[in-house]
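Hey,
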Amino acid sequence: MLPETFRCFLVNKDDQGNVTAEVVQRPVSDLPTDELLVRVAYSSLNYKDALAATGHSAVAKRFPHVPGVDAAGTIVRGGAGDTPDGTAVLIHGFQLGVERWGGFAEYVSVPREWIVPLPETMSLRESMVLGTAGFTAAMCIDALQKHDVNPDAGEIVVTGASGGVGSMAVAILAKLGYRVVAVSGKAFASQYLKKLGAARIAGREEFDDRTSRPMLSGRWAGVVDTVGGNILATLIRSTKRFGCVAACGLTAGAELPMTVYPFILRGITLAGIDTVWCPMPLRRELWQRLAGAWKPTDLDAMATEVQLDQLAEKVNTILKGGITGRVVVKV
């Protein structure tokens, strides 16, 4: 029998723009009743969630709002077919934690089309250690492989390597046999990145060429870029012939200051990564890989676990760039 209320991390903004965020009890009747109801076991903290927690209008569209673009739990109402009540599922992307209340709650209500059955070889907690970050890394690596960037092709650069997506990309690529150059502005993260399997740690300055040369010496077989801006332009200009650059972030800027020469003279592919609206067949296929050969060797060590009551502190930390790896939320 369902309870009458549930706990959630609720963000509100008044008419003057003042934002509050606190753990409260809300009626279960606040959630839509015509969709699947999932009891959440774990969620995860992403930068996008931290923006929503501060009332950022580009993420949280309406208030009150519950952030959390990831959720993993068990169907308790509305299950049918191959996903009956009691089925363990994970949810990420689409409009979870953006247009509708997200995973920082004991219950979420979502359309059936959004759920991914939890792979048999993965726990609910593991799925949220990976979460959107791990899935984004998987989409990037899938793009590299679809363009024949294999371990024997040469070095792979991963930018923002100490963050969620970057650290997952380093760990998965290393496990698959790639030689990874991990780029990070955090000196204290070097040991962490080496433990994940990075062959070399590099500073950002090596990848931030400010000259006007349309192309640089070809050095990299592929790139997983989480930062964008001039660093992305530098990496495209210095990628080897027929290499692939997977772009999934813009923390260093949304502009791309470069020419088309690397694309038409070296055959470079710039692969844009959109995890929010990733088609369900590919979504399910990549989660099966993440539960198998692509699962990082020491997944638990990549995460810090917090509860709902500790989220506010972690939100401030991630906004200041102080998080290494992943933050799992035990709901």
